[in-house]
Recover the amino acids of this structure.
């Protein structure tokens, strides 16, 4: 067994088990903490695919940013922490239909795609290529996303200031 | 390193475990030394002697304390959230440990020579924040929770000036790789980026004052990121008992300690790699003079450790010199001063890089 296989199964197990706990736990803070392991496992899988930049962005944005904000928000609103989440089964028939359709679609995509499988051959540097593409082929999308983020920032700032008047 | 080990043992799995455990060989002795240094520095600054009994000038004191901590009963209060309470110290330590994977200790040893080492180091520090939040929340104690919230708010805010200063250096050097940044600053100390980098010319002298400003901003914000005085709000002992690790004892407490001191070295090492040449010697190598090439990596390891420990010493010096700031002053300093200054600095360095 190759070392990369062992690491892959390790990360896959971490992702799946903690993902299961995220949806099955009744405590919202627990769900947040389990999400850490899920996101971390996904980052590990990205690394194994040779996508180092995406993996680190995943850690930076989801673990370092969104998850901390989420936990922060939950902890500051103390009424949420003691509420029991409903994680039992309800609406069985619609749920089965919906999940079945989604599962069917995903497996169809899985089998119809011709995967480009590549042997694990160390890391090729990806950053400079991503950077070059961002300012040549995808420059319009890149700039538009920048403007979108700026608008969101200004909006957040103005909402936070409003009640002072 | 990994290839060398897997050739040596003939198995990738053993090699992976060994290369993953190697930074521990550095962290544990360093922490034992740093705790002793901290106690001696604080004692001498307050006109005391500090630990004197165990070994010469008390140098065995921390080792004795370490064994004492190992033997202590592991107390878990009944109303804590057991699962997360037990895991949290290890997550904090894992966050610290991940940083050591990308530090270039010498040209012969770097855990993983990542192309995007600097970016990776900024990203994994988020794990420490989550560990601290977990510890504070699972302790089920008001003081712990307050400490954890303050710590998270502080680290998240101060990550912004840190990242912006690092970004300006990345723009100037054109690389995110820590070993490449170190290699650029080879030979003598005037090639360090704090003195404007290795290229002689107008750029060097134009960029020099802004590099010093960048260094000051980076040093202040890394100080806040490792929760050291004057920014040790999370564990302000006069208000919060001990902050997020109030409820911890024994081996788990020592995990927080390892993580804190390990983090101090990690940020000092990053500052020294970015501005002070990393593992490069400031005055040339003895190995070159004696024509003994094998000596150079060891000398580099020495310089790397020496620079890191020097900045750790400055952190201790500041701790026993400055009073603690208030929470609002902490946030004012970050959002109203450091972030605007670092953005202006970024723009100026960018313009200088272009000309």
């Amino acid at each position: 067994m190759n070392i990369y296989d062992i690491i892959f199964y390790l990360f896959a197990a971490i992702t799946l088990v903690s993902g299961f706990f995220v949806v099955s736990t009744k405590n919202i803070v627990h769900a947040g903490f389990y999400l850490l392991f899920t996101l971390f496992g996904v980052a590990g899988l990205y690394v194994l695919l040779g996508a180092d930049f995406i993996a680190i962005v995943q850690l930076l944005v989801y673990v370092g940013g969104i998850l901390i904000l989420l936990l922060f928000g939950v902890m500051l609103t103390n009424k949420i922490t003691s509420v029991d989440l409903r994680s039992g089964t309800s609406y069985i028939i619609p749920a089965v239909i919906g999940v079945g359709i989604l599962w069917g679609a995903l497996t169809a995509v899985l089998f119809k795609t011709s995967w480009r499988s590549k042997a694990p051959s160390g890391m090729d540097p990806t950053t400079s290529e991503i950077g070059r593409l961002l300012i040549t082929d995808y420059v319009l999308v890149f700039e538009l996303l920048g403007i979108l983020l700026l608008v969101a920032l200004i909006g957040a700032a103005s909402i936070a200031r409003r009640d002072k008047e | 390193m990994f290839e060398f080990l897997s050739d040596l043992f003939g198995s990738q799995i053993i090699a992976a475990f060994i290369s993953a455990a190697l930074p521990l060989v550095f962290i544990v002795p360093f922490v034992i030394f740093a705790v002793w240094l901290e106690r001696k520095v604080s004692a001498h600054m307050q006109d005391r002697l500090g630990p004197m009994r165990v070994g010469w000038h008390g140098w065995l004191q921390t080792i004795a304390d370490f064994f004492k901590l190992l033997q202590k009963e592991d107390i878990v209060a009944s109303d804590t959230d057991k699962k997360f309470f037990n895991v949290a110290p290890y997550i904090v330590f894992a966050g610290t440990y991940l940083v050591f994977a990308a530090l270039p200790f010498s040209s012969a040893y770097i855990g993983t020579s990542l192309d995007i080492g600097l970016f990776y180091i900024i990203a994994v520090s988020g794990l420490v924040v989550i560990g601290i939040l977990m510890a504070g929340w699972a302790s089920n104690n008001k003081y712990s929770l307050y400490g954890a919230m303050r710590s998270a708010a502080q680290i998240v805010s101060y990550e912004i000036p840190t990242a912006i200063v690092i970004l300006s250096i990345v723009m100037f050097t054109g690389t995110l790789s820590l070993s490449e940044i170190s290699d650029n600053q080879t030979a003598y100390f005037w090639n360090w980026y704090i003195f404007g980098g290795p290229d002689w010319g107008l750029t060097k002298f134009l960029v020099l004052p802004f590099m010093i400003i960048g260094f000051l901003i980076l040093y202040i914000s890394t100080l806040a990121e490792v929760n050291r005085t004057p920014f040790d709000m999370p564990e302000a002992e006069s208000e919060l008992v001990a902050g997020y690790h109030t409820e911890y004892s024994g081996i788990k407490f020592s995990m927080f300690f390892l993580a804190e001191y390990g983090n101090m070295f990690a940020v000092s090492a990053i500052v020294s790699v970015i501005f002070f040449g990393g593992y490069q010697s400031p005055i040339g190598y003895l190995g070159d003079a004696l024509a003994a090439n094998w000596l150079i990596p060891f000398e580099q390891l020495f310089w790397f450790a020496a620079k890191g420990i020097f900045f750790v010493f400055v952190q201790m010096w500041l701790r026993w010199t400055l009073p603690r700031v208030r929470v609002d002053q902490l946030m004012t300093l970050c959002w109203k001063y450091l972030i605007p200054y670092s953005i202006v600095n970024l723009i100026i360095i960018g313009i200088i890089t272009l000309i």
